[in-house]
């Protein structure tokens, strides 16, 4: 029974494919994803949204089953809006991470088949990133976090490319090259990418053209 459940989790996570990575820089943070939407090896669209804005300093990337990505992103956005109305302030990335964790744990007996990566700047404009598993166990990091079917490839490449104290433009180059090189080795992700760089002053969003095969 346990083996069947683990196989179900893995197949649900990998059915649509995807790659998401978040990375820390000097007083900035970046989050990026591919754009592919597919059914296993069949590509259906190249404009599927996997990164969602919660507020001006907090983003979440979701990789996994496409229907769960859309459902969970809408539920989390609603909870963020309710938090803002109740507290009269924006939610910080760390508090949002705990909100995501509790939301996923509430659904542990019928989990969402998606893995979140969270990136943002706190109230002091310090970078914050983390990821969770399907039932909300948080993995805090000081360099980068990855999720999706390309996670194994991303780990190795990000470890080679990432350096401390990267500026916004350097961080963009590092996260872009890491993502592009990683999903070139994964047939379930790719077909374009989007990168968001969050700084205290502004958000920089860039779309990348990649191989279409």
Question: How would you summarize this macromolecular structure in one to three sentences?
Answer:
Component of the proteasome complex. This protein is an alpha+beta fold and 213 residues long.
Most strands sheet? 5 strands, antiparallel
CATH architecture: 4-Layer Sandwich
Low-confidence stretches: 4-8
User: Gyration radius, to the nearest Å?
Assistant: 16 Å
The strand count comes to: 12
- What structural class do helix, strand and pairing data support? alpha+beta
Subunit structure: Component of the proteasome complex.
InterPro entries: Ntn_hydrolases_N (IPR029055), Proteasome_beta_3 (IPR033811), Proteasome_bsu_CS (IPR016050), Proteasome_sua/b (IPR001353), Proteasome_suB-type (IPR023333)
Family: Belongs to the peptidase T1B family.
Subcellular location: Cytoplasm; Nucleus
Please provide a written account of the structure.
- Its main location: cytoplasm.
- This is Proteasome subunit beta.
- Keywords: Cytoplasm, Nucleus, Proteasome.
- Component of the proteasome complex.
- GO terms for molecular function: endopeptidase activator activity.
- α4 packs antiparallel against α5 (168-183).
- This protein has a single domain (25-206), classed as Aminohydrolase, N-terminal nucleophile (Ntn) domain (Glutamine Phosphoribosylpyrophosphate, subunit 1, domain 1, 4-Layer Sandwich).
- Helix content is 36%, strand content 31%.
- The protein has helices at residues 2-14, 66-87, 93-106, 151-161, 168-183, and strands at residues 19-24, 29-34, 37-39, 42-45, 51-55, 58-64, 114-121, 127-132, 138-141, 144-148, 193-198, 203-208.
- The model is unreliable at 4-8 (pLDDT under 50).
- β7 and β8 form a beta hairpin.
- Strands 10-1-2-11-12 form a 5-stranded antiparallel β-sheet, covered by helices on one side.
- The protein starts with a helix and ends in a 5-residue tail after the last strand.
- The radius of gyration is 16 Å and the shape is globular.
- It is an alpha+beta fold.
